[in-house]
Amino acid sequence: MRLVWTVMFALASSAAFAASPEDDYIAARDKAIAAIAALNNANAPVEDLDAADAKARTDLQGRLSELLGPLAVKDFPATGTINLESLSDADVGYGMLDGLRYTKSDDGPSLLATTRGLLDRWLQARSAETDPALKLPTDINEALKLDAFYTQAINSDAAFMGTLDFPLKKPEGTDIAIARLGGWTQDVGPIYEQQVVVTLVKGNSVMIASAPATPPVPKIAACEALWTAADEAAQKLAAQASGQQDETAYDAANAAWEKGDGDYRKCMGEQLPKDAAFPALVGEAQALADQMAGK
Prior knowledge:
This protein has nine helices and seven strands, in the order H-H-H-E-E-E-H-H-H-E-E-E-E-H-H-H. It has about 300 residues and is of the alpha+beta class. It folds into two domains: about 15-215 and about 280-290, no CATH class; about 220-275.
């Protein structure tokens, strides 16, 4: 009897500690990152670094494809490409959310698919960041409400700036459904080409889709006036700073631009729901959520 229980315990223990497909993927990713870091430290030629990075990301893409399976969302391809743009911490595109990106064209809708487990691990890593601009909460609901989440997860060369969150009816069977309006930018001020961004979490599946806002987000006169006044004031301070080499004036100019940007976005968040275009934008967000949910 003791032998039987010993064997059963050993089998149970080995099953409990067996590596999951997500564990295998993370281990392979981290091994590749370490190998590329070693090449960087050894001052390897750029060509060798690029080749090693491309080979490793191709391998990781295959692992993710097995982990996620074919995508079954209408109007999106069944196969995707890896979302990670680089495995070198010296490059732009390093540290993005692990997953596959699906798109038919550069300027059309795109969808990032991952798992709840991979997202949890990614948020855990971001929660340990010492830079406040990069630090994210571990709670998915909280993270999805932050501009910094979308900046770090799905874009490498611009920051996401949210305009507002849409009222969204959660598709049946989904655990989390969040829809946001915003755009990617490298500067302060109005973003006229905005995106509808929808995130659905269903069981272990996570999908983040973005599509150009249709109709385009309108210009609202009151909000434009706020930004114009702030920009003019900041421009004057910047000119003064340049002429006098005055650091205080430079700081004042930047502060004026930042405040103007914040006032403009607040105004858009308050006024856009009153605009005639808003129902159509809400409809686009809901349609995208329903499409992702398979409705």
